[in-house]
Amino acid sequence: MSCFIWALIIIIVIALLSACWPLFAVLAILFAIWKIYEMTYYKSDKFLNMKLRIDTYIQECNDLNQHIESLKDTSIIAGRVDYGDASYKDASKWNYKREHLQNQKYAPNVYNCSRTVCDNAKKKPFEYICKYFGIKADEDTLVKFENILNNFEAAEDGKNHLRDEKNKILASIQMEIPFLIQKLSKKKLEQKLGFEEIDMSTAYFPRYIFKYVSSGGNASTQCDVVMDIDNLNRFVLFLSEKIKFNKSVAGQRALMTSKLRQHIKERDGFTCKICGASIQQEPNLLLEIDHIIPISKGGMTTEENLQTLCWRCNRSKGAKI
Ligand SMILES: [Zn+2]
User: Fold this and answer.
1) Quick one: pLDDT at residue 262?
2) What DSSP designation does 177 have?
């Protein structure tokens, strides 16, 4: 019976193909014509001249893109103790498949734990991250997480500014680009103009995983804590409450949160303190918060030691220090 059905399906498909082959042929020819047109356009003087004319803007976008990528690389504290490597051999007589243990790779942000720990971590994620990933609630840790938050928030801001700026550049040349290229070749157009791809994912945020797998490997549960901007802000507050500040410091110490970043930008009138560039002139300008005396040289997170800089000045300041 099933053989008969298959034969019937094959006969119908063949009949359809032979009935419609002129349609397929026409489609194939149209596709080939389109590809030749597209290729010719990207090699034409008209396109190349336009590309040359806006090249400075595109390069600036790509510079910002690279800067954002480097902001994302801010080191994450892998606080867990490295106990070394040991091979695991399951010598049990029982036919349990403990693949999760055999395939275990070194992953600093995964903690294999009991079901209770996993369940409790869901209720009090910050407490459990500190406890099981060896993150000490002290001034040093707080500074590191504030730095991560500061850089990651600049990276997230930067991505949006960059996307807007790219769209602005594309809009400025829209009238010169043929309709079909605009509609059917959007991605290739950006590539051919020289835009580097903007990575809009948030995969770089630190992720802490509590994982429980039963000894038989059949039951498992997992608690993921992603340190996104919101959680980083809350974690900074959480750490600061755990730390008993030195009295002389407590008066001036501010917490480097999103709120403070916004406050400093407003105080400085959304203007770079070095070159004077502002969002009035450049609406998509990425502004960052900088420690005037760097933390590495004893600078503190106090309002007096913070200033607004544009990403270009901040980057060249960073290169000098
Ligand atoms: Zn500047």
Assistant:
1) 96
2) S
Distance 166 CA to ligand 1 centre (A): 20
pTM (predicted TM-score):
0.79
Q: Determine the distance separating the centroid of ligand 1 and the alpha carbon of 148, expressed in angstroms.
A: 22
Output the CA 288–ligand 1 centroid distance in Å. 10
Token digits of residue 73: 């690389």
Pairing status of strand 110-112 against strand 287-291: unpaired
Please, what is the Cα angle at 317 between 311 and 321, to 5 degrees?
A: 145
* Cα 252 to ligand 1 centre (Å): 27
Domain assignment present for residue 269? The answer is: yes
Q: Is 107 inside any structural domain?
A: no
Q: Give the domain range for residue 268.
A: 246-321
Residue 266 lies in a domain: yes
Alpha-carbon dihedral sign for residues 235, 236, 240, 246? positive
In a domain, 262, yes or no: yes
CA 259 – CA 270 distance, rounded (Å)? 15
pLDDT at 100 over 70: no
Q: What is the 3-state secondary structure (H, E, C) of 192-236?
A: HHCCCCCCCCCCCCCEEEEEEECCCCCCEEEEEEECCHHHHHHHH
What is the 274 CA–ligand 1 centroid distance (Å)?
Answer: 5
Confidence label for 74 from pLDDT (cuts 50, 70 and 90)? confident
Count of domains observed in the chain: 1
